[in-house]
Structure formats: structure tokens, C-alpha cells
Amino acid sequence: MLEVRGLSVDYLSNGTALHAVENVSFKVEKGRSIGLVGESGCGKTTTMLSLLRLLPADGRIVSGQILYDGMDLLQLSEHEMRGYRWNRIAIVFQGAMNALNPVRKIGDQIAEAIQLHDRLDNRETRQRVGELMEMVGIAPERARQYPHQFSGGMRQRAMIAMSLACNPDILIADEPTTALDVMIQAQILDLLQQLQSQLGLSIVLVTHDLGVVAELCDDVLVMYGGKVAEYGDVDTIFNNPAHPYTRRLLEAFPDVDSPTSTLASIPGYPPPLDNLPAGCRFEPRCYRKTDLCTAVSPDVIEIKPRHFVACHHAEE
Amino acid sequence: MRSKSKKFVVAMLIFAMLGLGIVVNAQDATTTLRIGTTYMIDTLGPGSGYYGYDIRGLFYETLVEAADNNNVEPGLAESWTVSDDGLTWTFKIREGVTFSDGTPLTAADAAWSINWIIENQVVSMVSYLAFVESAEAPDATTLIMNLSEPVSNMISSKLLYVYILPPHIWEGKTAEEIAEFNEPESTIGAGPYHLVEHQPDEYMILEANDNYWRGQPPVDQIIYQQYSTEDALVQALAAGEIDLAKVLPTSGVQTLEQTENVQVIKTTGLNFLQLSMNVSEDGTQPASMRDPQVRLAIDHAIDREQIVTVGYFGLAEPAEILFPPAMAQWRNTDIQIVPFDIAEANRILDEAGYADTDGDGIREDADGNPLEYRLAGPDSDAYYPRILEIISDGLSQIGISALPYTQSTESLTVLQVDYDYDMILWDWGIDADPHFLTSVFTCAEMADGGWNDTGYCNPEYDALFQTQATATSDEQRRDALWKIQQMIFDDRPWIILVYPQAISGYRSDRFTFDPNLPNALLKWGLFTGFSIVQ
Amino acid sequence: MQFDYLLRKVFFAVITLIVVIVFNFFLFRILPGDPVKLLFRNPRLTREAQELIRVQFGLDKPVWLNIERLSAGDIPGALDSQFTAYIHNLLQGKLGISFTNRQDVGEVLSERVWRTVLLVFSGELLAIVMGVVVGLVAAWKRGTAIDSAALFIGLLTWALPTFFLGIILLILARGILPTGGMVTPGLAEEGTLEYWIDVGRHLILPSLTLAVVSASGYMLIMRSSVVEVLSEAYILTAKAKGLSNARILFSHALKNAMLPMITIIALTLGYVVGGAIQVETVFSWPGIGRLIYDSVAKQDYPVLQGAFLLLAVSVILANLTADILYSVFDPRVKVT
Ligand SMILES: Nc1ncnc2c1ncn2[C@@H]1O[C@H](COP(=O)(O)OP(=O)(O)O)[C@@H](O)[C@H]1O
Ligand SMILES: [Mg+2]
Question: Does residue A68 register a pLDDT over 70?
């Protein structure tokens, strides 16, 4: 349904182009969910914003295609693009603190999206807002309240309710649970899972929590340094990881049921954008690196059907 | 007077100097003369008003009146005599005069007014009746004033400012009520116009008094419109919003001379620019400032021609003598002026023993104190700093350091009354009669609230002043005044710098004013050849 | 809004007012010099007459306390001072009599205050509208030529002396618009349509001058406020919703960006009664600003005290209004 082909994104900083995302390809299929994992700064958010063409002013999509039912979103006019936003692809941002406008009522903010895309009258809109709020477990009366009167978890629920306002096909959730406490995190994730099965949504879940991915997703895209490291279905990735980075990630999560551990347990840091290695991006931190890795950046290859890896030593 | 009081004195001066003949041609329609001004009147009542005398003069009549060329003409008094001892004045009061509300005016009203002013100590007028003990009216046309001492300028000055008022308006009011009575009725007098509308700081509308004794006033209506700045007057005159502006800034002359239908009038009048020198015995000035030789040297070092050019765009004349040429009757024409001469100034200082002993370019006195002076001027106009600069330049060439600076007239006044200054630049506007001007240098004026701004105190001078005040003949008075001028010139408590030209302007498409008829803008001028253009 | 909150704000306002009343009295009395000496430095005034005036205005009394009487144990005599007279008058609602024109200060002020409010209010209103609109556009078009032009013109007009701008406008409009004053004397009866049209014509230049010089301040604040708001996450949410730029700007950015403006606007309007000395001077507008200016020069204490009391009351009220408005506009402000 949504296919990203060879997406590359640069940020312009003081006249130099920083390659934040390079040649990323993946597919979001109907009713399936895909997990996007990788450490902070890997280009996950940048990729998601590109899908909706919402990059900040200094971001440029330099190449690639974003095909939605075969239509390249990058070729649309700004006006046409607006018709896709929320209506087809909705997004829930990282950290719900400021994603809602503090001076407007929750209900109005939800209603705004409905009226923009669905042209319902006021009464119908109000009713729909009520349904949506119930769906995410908030009492409909609270539509009249302001964001500051909601707790963090409630706000994220409200965001999810809002994201569902126009019955989108795809819901992007960019780290929807960071900054929430553990109990609430689990509730929100349950909610997402439940909504997915109930509404037949495709979900793109950005996270660095592999436990969540294992539980929620059908496919997994592992990103490192703005590039695809490994891409395949959840079983393949978890049972037969081929990329050393994926393996390291999995090792950092010995227990899939204890999502509290962090990724910081991999020694070293992702490469800074203004000083990328010449060869494989992971090479400086890799336990299997060879001279080839230092010199040549590996292409993404399909080592098995629907299992893609970018590593010179993937098949060893 | 200082710039502040300068306003009202300039008003009087203009009143006295601009004989603007106005010829009225329009017959049926109401004729209106619109006068632009930067100040109008402080209080409507005559009892506590300190400025706006040109306007007050339209409301009230006086016994005698200022006319052309600083002459005095009969007003309500047709004629007068004074006893040989100078103590009894007898006036013949005109018959058939009425106040603007129709009540007749007789000698009894004149006597009542004078007694009322004295009894109530009416602050705006009582000083003009000094030495007057009482007034009486033995019949309807005779007024007698009894004095305790002769007063030389009774006619030429004092009585010009004493209004004859209607008793039925003022009788029985307390001093406070007199001061605060601010209703339009308080402007009822026997003058050619009466007040119709007054918006403080905005405008006044005056209407002709049909019963005026000199005859029907030539314009039906006079409107005074107040502007905040003289620059605005220039614009208003150029735009034709006003017909006449009596006081215009020199900076506006060029614009106005190029404007069609605007006629500019320049007159040298009763004003001058002067430098006050602190000669006080208990002032804060350096001791050298009290040395007349230093002041003489300073006088030599001031380039007056340059002040005229740079400060006044040429619209002034270099000056030396206390009495400007407009006071021809009293002016001492024998005084030998000192030329601009840096070499001579240096020579005087050398001779007086002021040498630059430490080689810093500034002379020191015998005690080693440098000739360093504060040189102040008002900040109210742009030409003051330019002039201060010229003076300072000249002084630097004779080894005197004088740092020029400007301040508000109010703070300068405060410094000056405390003799806490060295040199201050001031503009003065004065009466045609020299009494007040010469009083400034008397010892008596050094008292609190007095006018002596330099601390000059000289018994010889005070005697001369007394002589001119009580002289019973013009010759006697002139003799004293000539000596006074010479004495001020020699002692230099003031150094007179220039006589600036007074600038007025009018719309020649509405009125014609004869610039050769230099006197009494309104009241007098209105009845002595004023014409309205079609 | 909680009553409690309001009550406390009002309480502090009253305290402030009392402090102002006392301060007001002493403020002008520390000016160097003596009002009678300055005001009546006039050859028509004999020294006896000056003394008379001093007594009339109560300036012969001690300013604060009669120390001599106090040490003599005469308490009422000690309290017979200028200050007690001032408080006594004030309690009776009297602001005193002007030294200069002998008119009741209350009347003088009430006559002038509406003229000043008319001028400053219309000028500031125009400035606010211009500032808000240009600031909004500049922020939205940040980094473009439009933004740079707005900034340049803003800084230029900000640096432009009011006097200079006023005189330029005055000369440019000479013959088209009146050069000064508030009405054409004798043209129309007060209150008629013709009168108000005349006032309107006189109002154009001064309010425009005021607007141009103060608009840039609003513009710069508005611009930075909008720039800040536009970087907020909820703006990205609004974009993601598919809203058009205009809707994002007006229904999401504007209200948030206006929050800092509300305080500034309310406080500015509080100073409205203080007038605009420079504009009032250039255009001969007979307002409070010029009255204060002239009265300072003449040390006309009663007028100054009255004017500053008026100003203080209006600033205090404006502060109160700002607090209340802010809590109305921003639901986050807890009014407790
Ligand atoms: N507006 C921007 N300008 C320049 N660099 C940016 C900008 N936004 C993100 N980046 C950089 O792009 C890289 C990818 O960022 P991001 O997509 O936010 O990563 P992730 O979501 O995986 O943490 C990071 O190195 C980040 O510093
Ligand atoms: Mg991110």
C-alpha cells in the first residue's frame, strides 16, 4: 500500500548537506504493522516526516519515491499533499507534551481534523469526537477540557483519538510512549494493538524498544546511521539476525519481556552526520569488521526472500 | 526677562513694534483674522494673568496707550496734568465710553479700579501703582491720583498696564476669588473685542465690541490659535491656516519668503542676546571672573559677526549697548564700542597679570587658579549651542577655557538666582520704558525673588537708578539713563551680544500690513490703517 | 476565575495606589528650585505679591511636618503642612488649583484626558494592528525578502525620532490636512457630525506618527513570538493534520503568539492617559502629555500631582486588566 523506494534526505547546515537518511526502502502493507528500530539519531523521525513531507525548512528529500497505492507523494502539489495528510496517513508524535495546542480545547482540536477532511456537520462532528474519545478510553465530556487538564498518558490517548479521526489507512507512531511511565506505556501500546486489529490499520511504530516490536509488529526495519541495516519479518529478524548491529541490539535485550533495559549497552555511539565513515557506517563499532568494511559501504542485498541485509559478512 | 518671561515680553514688544495697518474690504460676510501663536493667555481674569498681554489689551482699556514708535497716546484719559511736585495727577476721562456689556464707564470706575487694585494687592497690576496712595473721581470725567513720591514713567510705562475694570463684575470678591475668577465675564472691559469662546491651549474666539469708543473695530472676529512650536506656526502660515503669526523663528524665514502670498516682516526691536557674568561677592565663580579686565578681554574675544551669521542666519545686528536702537529716546549714542580683537584681548590679560605659567594653554591668576569657566545657555532653541560654541572658540584663543553646555531655562534660572554659575547666555525682551531693565542691576534686586542675576551691586548705580525713577523731566531722566548705560558697558555684568530681528509674517492674500508702520499690532494698529485684501 | 484571586489583585492595587499617592507628593517637591520663584519670575510681580501667592497656595507651610511646633508639643500645629493639606483635599476628591491658570485641576484633567485618550488610543490601536499583522507575516516568511524588508523598515522607524517623522509628515500633508490643533476654531458646534469630521481630520497625522513609531516595537515582539510558537510541536501536528498555512497561522499560532502581546498591549494602554509628549508637541495636540511637560517646567505641583495620580490609577487598572485578560486567554494560567 505504501512503498518507500531509495529515500535520501539531507539537512542543510551552514551550507553543507548532512546526509541524515540515505537510500532507505521499505513497504507498509495493508493491515500489517512495521517496527522501525535503531538508536537515537539513526534517521527514524526524519524518515517518518518525509513520508508526510513535513520536514523542517532545512530538510530536503534529495532522491527516492514514496508510493502510496502506486502514486508518488513526492510529485504531488502541496495542496494535493494536504489531502493525504491525516486522511490517509496520520501521525502521533514523540512526547505528547506539546503536540496539542495548549490554548484550544481537546475536542475542538479533534473536530478540526474531522471537519477538514470529512465535511461532517457540527452535530455529527461532536458525536464522532465522542466516539473517538470513548475508543481510546477517555470520557467524552472531557472534550471540553484543555490539554493542561490532561495527564501525559491521557494526552497521548487524545492524540491517538485525534489521529484516528479521519479513519486513516496508516498510523505512524513515532516513539509514542517515551516520557510516559511504564504502566502507561503498556496501556498505550495495548491500545494501539487493539485499535489495529479492530480497525485494520497499518501501523508504523518507531521505537528503540525491541520488546515492543516483538509483541506488536509483523515486520521490522533496523536503521543505523541513516541507512537500512536489516529488514525482514519479525521472526526472521529475531531468530536469524544477519547484521551485527541487529545482533548487538538483540543481545542488549536478553529478555524480551523486560523492556526496561536500554540500548546504551552497545559500546560506542552512532557516527555523527558531519563525520560519516567512508565504508560501512557500523564499521567503527563492529566486532566483525574487515578491510572491506572500512573501504566500501555495503549494499542492501536480499539474502533470503524478504530478508534484506546491508553487510559484507551477512551470509557467513 | 529669561526665555520664559521672554514670551510675554516679546508679545508686548511685538504689540508695541508692529504697526500693521489692516484694510478691510469685504463688506457683508463676517471678517475673521486668524492669529497663530505659541501661547495665548494663562488666566482669563486680569488679576493673576502673567502673559497674553496683547490679547488682554483687546478686552480692557487703559488710561493711556502705546502707539507708534514707542509713543504714548491718550486712551480713556483724553488729557492729563501733573502737579509741580509730581505728586498729584489729574486725568480728564473720555465721555460716552461703555464696557462691552453696555454699562457706561466713568471716572468713578477708573478711580474704583485703581483703588481696588491697591486694596486687593492684585498681583498682576499692583506693582505699577507703586507710590500711588489713592484715586478719586470728583466728577464723571475727572480722575485724580495721589502719589507719595514722583514717578517718572507714570505715563510712558506704568499706566499702560493698569486696566480700567467694571466694578459690577469685581466688587466684593475676595483676593482668592479675584485670582481664580476664570469665567468669560472676567474679560469684560471697554476694549474693542470681547471673548466668545476659550479653549485653553487650543484657541480663543473674540468678537468685535460694537460700542467701542474709537468706532466699529475693523474685523468682526479674531481667532487666536495656539500651536506648540514656532515651527508649526511656519507651516500653518504657509498652509494658509492662519493669517498672521507675530513671533516666528528665524529658521522659518527662508521657507516663508519662498511661499506665495506670505509676507515676512523683520524688525529690530526691543530685544537682545546677552551674556550674564557672575560678578557676585558670594557666588561660586572663580575669583578672576570678578576682575573687570577679564570681562573686557572676554568682550574683545567674542566674534559677534559670526554669531549673527551662524546663530541667526544674518537676521540680527551685532550689539554692545544695553538699550537697543528701538529705545532711541533713551539710548546712549556716545559709547565707544570694543572691537573683536583677539590680540588686544591677549594684551589686556597679559597686562593684568594672567599668564599661562604651566604651559597648558590656559592662563592662571596670581593664585595659580586657571581661567576656566562654565559657559551655559538654554536648551530651548537650536541656536544657543551654536552661539556658545563661537564664544568658546574665541575664548580659547585668549587662553581662557570655557566649556559650553545647555540646560533647561528652569534649571539655569535656579543656578542663576543662587549665583552658582560663571557665564550664562540669555535672550531678553524688554519694555519700551527702561525702568524695569535698569532695575535689574540694583542691589535691592539681589534679595530673594529679585531680578539681579549677576550680583552686580554698586551704590553709585543705585543712585542713578533712583534719579531716573523719580525724575520729573525727560532731560533729567535721560541724563541718568545715559550714565547707567555707560556704567553697565564699562563694568560688564552683562555683555550685550546681538540685537536679533523679530520675525513676523502674514498672509498677503488676506490682509495687507504696512511694514513701515511699526507699531501696536492690534489695538493700536487696527485703528490706524489696517486693510483687508479682497 | 476565582473571586479570591480578584480580591487579592484588587487589594494589591489599592496598596499600590496609596504608595503612589504619598510618593506623588514628594516626587515633585524634590525638583530643585521654588515654584513661585520660577513661575512668577515676572516684572509685574513685586516681592510682596509673590509672598501673597505663596500664602494662597499654602507654600508658606512646611512640606511635611512643622518640626518647631512638634518640639513645642503642639501636635495639630505640627501637622499643619502641605502634605496634610494634600491628603485632606484628596480625601474630599479635590486635586487642588493649578498654580498657572488657577483652574480646578480635576476640571483641567477631565477636559484633556479624553483628547489624549482619543489620540493615543487610535495611534496605539493602529500601531498594534500594523505591528501584529506585519510581525505575523514576517515570522511566517522568516528568512525571505519580505521578512528582511519588514525588519529593516521596523528598525528604521524605531530609530526615527518622533519629532523628525512628525515634521516630515506635517510638511508633506501641508494644505491637505491641518497642521495642528484638534479642531478648526469656530468651524462647527461641538458634538455635531461636522465637528467630529473636523476632529478626525486633525487626528490623522498625529495618530499616524504615533502609530508608525510604536508599530515597530509591536512588530518585533510579535515576530519573535510567532517564530517561537511556530517551532512548537503542536504546529507540526497542525501541519500533519493537513491544515493550510493560513489556518495554521490564524487558528493555531496567532492566539499563542498573542499571549505575550496581551500584557504589553494592556500595559501600553495603561499609559495612554499619560499622553505622547512629542506627538502632542509637534501637532499642537492639547493633551495630557503636553500639560505634564509644561507643568514640570513651571513646577505646577497640583497639576502634576493630579496628572500622575490619574496615570497611576490607569496603570494600576491596566495591570489588573492584563492579569484578568491573560487568565481569560490562556487556559493554563491558574487563577489561584
Ligand atoms: N532540523 C535538522 N537539522 C539538521 N540536522 C537534523 C535536523 N533534524 C535532525 N537532524 C539530524 O538528523 C539525524 C537524524 O535525526 P532523527 O531523524 O531525529 O533521528 P531519530 O528519530 O532516529 O532519533 C540526527 O543526526 C539529527 O541530529
Ligand atoms: Mg526520533
Answer: yes
**Interface residue C236 vs chain A (CB under 8 A):** yes
**pLDDT of C203:** 95
Q: Which of B11, B43, B475 is nearest to B270 (CA)?
A: B11
Task: Count other Cβ atoms within 10 Å, centred on residue C32.
Answer: 12
Per-residue DSSP letters for A108-129? Answer: HHHHHHHHHHH---HHHHHHHH
Alpha carbon distance A28, B343 (integer Å): 101
Per-residue confidence at B12, pLDDT binned at 50, 70, 90?
Answer: very low
Pairing of strands B401-407, B372-378: parallel
Is the model's pLDDT at B383 over the cut of 80? yes
Q: Could you tell me if A150 lies within 8 Å of chain C, comparing CB atoms?
A: no
- Cα of A45 from ligand 2 centre, angstroms: 4
- Please determine, for the modelled complex, whether the ipTM score is greater than 0.85: yes
Q: What is the pLDDT of residues B230-288, one digit of tens each?
A: 889 999 999 999 999 988 998 899 999 999 999 898 887 788 999 999 999 989 999 99
Structural fold of domain A2-88+205-309: Rossmann fold (3.40.50)
CA A9–ligand 1 middle distance (angstroms) = 10
> What's the predicted TM-score (pTM) here?
0.75
End-to-end alpha-carbon separation of chain C, Å?
Answer: 8
Residues making up chain C, counted from first to last: 336
Q: Closest to A99 (Cβ–Cβ): which among C234, C255, C332?
A: C234
| Domain residue ranges of chain A, discontinuous segments joined by + | 2-88+205-309
The answer to whether the CB atoms of B232 and C179 lie below 8 A apart is: yes
B109-to-B88, B100, C255 alpha-carbon distances in Å: 19, 14, 73
**Closest by CA position to B158, among listed B87, B85, B64, B68:** B64
Domain spans of chain C, in order of start: 3-91, 105-329
Q: Round to whole Å and give the CA distance between B527 and B32.
A: 16
Burial of C172 (0-12, 13-18, 19+ CB in 10 A): exposed
Rounded (5°) CA angle A139-A144-A145: 85
> Quick check: B362 and B369 in contact, CB under 8 A?
no
Q: How is residue C108 written as a grid cell?
A: 483641567
**Strands B530-532 vs B22-23: parallel, antiparallel or unpaired:** parallel
Nearest to A73 by CA among A6, A145, A4: A4
Q: Indicate yes or no: CB of C174 within 8 angstroms of CB of B238.
A: yes
Query: Nine-digit cell at C255?
Result: 492566539
Are B205 and C186 in contact by the 8 Å Cβ rule? The answer is yes
Specify the pLDDT at position B36.
Answer: 93
Fold of C105-329: MetI-like fold (1.10.3720)
Which residues keep their CB under 5 angstroms from ion ligand 2?
A: A 45
Determine the Cα–Cα distance for residues C139 and C235; give it in Å rounded to an integer. 14
Give the cell for residue B410: 528652569
Say how many CA atoms lie within 13 Å of B439 toward its Cβ: 18
Give the position of cell 559677526.
B305
Alpha-carbon span B302 to B393, nearest angstrom: 9
CB atoms within 10 A of CB B47: 27
Q: Which residue of B200, B201, B239 is in closest CB contact with C179?
A: B239
Using the structure block, give the residue that is written with the C-alpha cell 463688506.
B27
CA-CA distance, A212 to B426, in Å (whole number)? 90
Q: Where are the alpha helices (DSSP H) in chain C?
A: 3-29, 35-39, 47-56, 67-71, 75-78, 82-91, 105-140, 145-159, 162-172, 193-230, 233-240, 245-247, 254-270, 277-282, 288-298, 301-329
CA distances C189 to B33, C199, C285, Å, are 20, 12, 19
